[in-house]
Amino acid sequence: MGEVMAFLSLLCFSGNVLLTKAASSRLNVQIGYFASICVNVFIAIVMVLFEHSVLHNPFHWMLRGFIYYVLAGCLTTYVGRLTYFHAIVRLGAAKASTIQVASPVFTVVLAFLTIKEVLSAVEWAGCLCTVLGLFVVTYVPGIFSKHRERSDERGIVKDVGSLTRPLNEPSAAKGNAFAFLSMSAYGAGNIFRGEGVRHWNDPVFGGFVGALVGLVAFIVTTPRQVYRLRALKNADRRALLMYCFGGLCTITAQMSVLFAMRYMPIGIVTVISMSQPLIVVPLTYLLFKKSGRMTARTIYGSLITLIGLILAVAV
Q1: Looking at the keywords, is Disulfide bond present (predicted)?
Q2: Which of 245, 272, 246, 242 is nearest to 259 (CA)?
Q3: Which is more confident, 232 or 58?
Q4: Domain span at residue 159?
């Protein structure tokens, strides 16, 4: 059961990356994030009501678990996702995913240091093999060179009138900083997710708390941006719809991660759910015309990743 939910989260997170990449060239990322997180909260409310009103599952309040869910929401739904959105916009889906490859290792090490979660030698080998394979899949020689930055990468715009237009100021340095911040936030947030579900075994409500915290944090920290969202009525409808579907993907992925952490070590769940380049990179080539063919590097890296995942979950 844990493996199924972890792989479901992988599919949903990958779908969100592709949708964000497609939508970011048509609509400002701040509006996109707001739309996505609103969908998160709405879907989560529906699922909570269904679980406790229709299925009649009992509701037991656990303060410690609630605190962990709140911290996880701040780090993943708000800091992690928003900075990842900015990284995708500035760097592209493939490059942002390359940096994100280090997140599973960061989580595994952090879990060992903070909550003494110990993996077997085979699980460690699987994790490292997976990360190595993901790096091979995503790495392109010179990808981090400034000379490779395209002049049409989109930056964050400040003025009110341009909120509904694509972003247009490239910033590789900021993009890399956003990607590394996202990696760290997701890594630490996953620890709190795991601890939350262990102290309060209600993944659906935990997903709702995380989504709500992300929305509140966005409103509190960027009140001027929220005021400017009046421009939403003039936004590109297709891009807005993509961001909304991305919100559906992410709330599904978040709840799937929480369900998986009920049955599996936090580090293993993170390794699986963050293996997004295995799906994102090939589809990026196909959907965004990044390459006319699959390279040998991509094929070999995919095989290494699959071997690592098998070692991590099936041995």
Answers
A1: no
A2: 272
A3: 58
A4: 2-314
